[in-house]
Amino acid sequence: MVSFAASNVVLFVVFLVSLLHINTDARRLSESDQTEQPLLFQYHNGPLLTGKISVNLIWYGKFKPSQRAIVSDFVASVTSSKPTVAEPSVSTWWKATEKYYQLSKKPSSLALSLGTQILDENYSLGKSLTNQQIIELASKGAQKNAINVVLTSADVAVGGFCSSRCGTHGSGLGTSNGQIKGKSSKFAYIWVGNSETQCPGQCAWPFHQPIYGPQNPPLVAPNNDVGLDGMVINLASLLAGTATNPFGNGYYQGPKLAPLEAASACPGIYGKGAYPGYAGDLPVDATTGASYNAHGVNGRKYLLPALFDPSTSTCSTLA
């Protein structure tokens, strides 16, 4: 089984002032690397996720229905084409990933949709999880044409959580279908933890002051939940990485075990003018004072990370 990308937010807050980072195994990239050397993304000839793919949510631990709605509405917003959704929208943000598909040798497309939701409120594997147990939980979702997302509650510890990562994505070997044409089937998974009580300064920035670096006032979370709005940032980053590098041989720059992917190549950037400790120029909700850069379904707003544009070799923001 393979696990390869992406702690989000924690490392650059800790090690590079207050920049965010979401790479596997705590990859560190110096600011000089970012500014002096252009990022040259390479396609490593591996398969991408194509066609209709369901995003299944596995909720591990205690989450309020209102908290689950924040994440499920985000996933539903990714491919929503509702005319009532204002711009810039979550779906506009997601369309940036289509450039990777157009650049591949066999141009294809990906259509995500919200799939099933599984609740494990009784902590079936305890409150301290290993990466292998994360994969075990992910395997509870459908393993064909799916991305299975494990979301752990604030009272669940996961190996490496906060110290080196806020989430990860990878692939596991399918167990339900056995062999397909002589090859082991794989399914893509994502894990994201709720950092609200364990390490909000590492994994929920910019909605919480960073533990190191410039101490600018934190932004107001668009859904009034520091932990869940932070999870959305991490999930968005990992979802982009999963689409463009699902099995470790898709689009990335750098070493395979610590790749820079579509979102992790743009740490800490949410709006134009971003710099260490400053998320960028962002719209502010006149009523709540919350900062955001994308509109979603059901009247929601979200803050989403910049994505690396392979056609211009720059980080592209919505705001």
Automatic annotation (TrEMBL):
Domain of life (superkingdom): Eukaryota
Lineage of the organism: Eukaryota, Viridiplantae, Streptophyta, Embryophyta, Tracheophyta
Main localisation: secreted
Organism name: Theobroma cacao (Cacao)
First and last residue of the signal peptide: 1-26
TM spans (from-to): none
Localization: Secreted, Extracellular space, Apoplast
Record-stated family: Belongs to the EXORDIUM family.
Primary gene name: LOC18592133
Gene Ontology terms: cellular component: apoplast
The keyword Secreted is annotated on this UniProt entry: yes
InterPro entries cross-referenced by the UniProt entry: EXORDIUM-like
Protein name: Protein EXORDIUM
Pfam families to which the protein is assigned, alphabetical: Phi_1
RNA-binding in keyword set: no
Keywords for the protein's UniProt record, in alphabetical order: Apoplast, Secreted, Signal
